[in-house]
């Protein structure tokens, strides 16, 4: 039998000395500049946004600027364009996240197997996530979706079909761009989950006669549940803020077909110059995003607890 001792109960080990207040602040001191910088960079702009959300501020009316109470929030929540932007944001985020999650899971299952050149293939698969969002949107708009010389129309032209993707399917066009860009992110998270599976469990399943489909359904998929939740929530937090692809490809149109919440705030602030309403819409979006982030942090915490 092996005796187990803890550092605090080991015989002869010196008891830890309690630090004085000056020593504790001496250790925290080097971290304070970074902490103050993060607070100044993130919280001060948000406090100004909250302040302007209660002001009747319009850049085209110099006499505006007085306290307006909750009028901006009432105007934003009662605006049909805002509700249309909420619906578009939900459809856009759900479509892009689910499509990239399914594609990422398929690629992760392929890359989890050993084959010649797997490292090169993995690097190539990650490449779309490294492309700048503006450059990726411009690439898809000019090279893939162009109605005359776009690659998609070139593929389907032998069947006598020619589609103006951006005008006929604007929301689907944005979803495909986002899925192309975020699939590597999902793939990396799920690949980490696949490679953390205990190999002896998979070997025992094979010895018991379980096929690949049964092994995936009974062992792999339950093991990936936390990783799927993490990928789903992190992807949702990032994709709900999409602006670049909409600005570069559709400008929120045709009409309001692809106007999501970030682009709606942009239109209110820099086209209509309604700074107060734009700030109120921004506060609403931040509050909704915080709710999603809380779920994400709970999932991450539970994931680390399971690992420990």
Automatic annotation (TrEMBL):
Q: Where does the chain cross the membrane?
A: 31-54, 90-111, 123-140, 171-194, 227-249, 278-300
Q: Which residues form a coiled coil?
A: none
Localisation: Cell membrane
Q: Which UniProt keywords apply?
A: Cell membrane, Membrane, Transmembrane, Transmembrane helix, Transport
Main location (coarse class): membrane
Signal sequence, renumbered to the chain: none
| InterPro entries assigned to the protein according to its UniProt record, in alphabetical order | MetI-like, MetI-like_sf
Superkingdom of this protein's organism: Bacteria
Question: What Gene3D superfamilies does the record tag this protein with?
Answer: MetI-like
Keyword Transmembrane listed? The answer is yes
- Name the Gene Ontology biological process terms: transmembrane transport
Task: Show the Pfam families listed in the entry.
Answer: BPD_transp_1 (PF00528)
* Example of a GO cellular component annotation carried by this entry: plasma membrane
Membrane topology for this entry?
Answer: Multi-pass membrane protein
Residue ranges occupied by any ABC transmembrane type-1 domain in the UniProt entry = 86-296
Q: Which family does it belong to?
A: Belongs to the binding-protein-dependent transport system permease family.
The protein here is known as Sorbitol/mannitol transport system permease protein
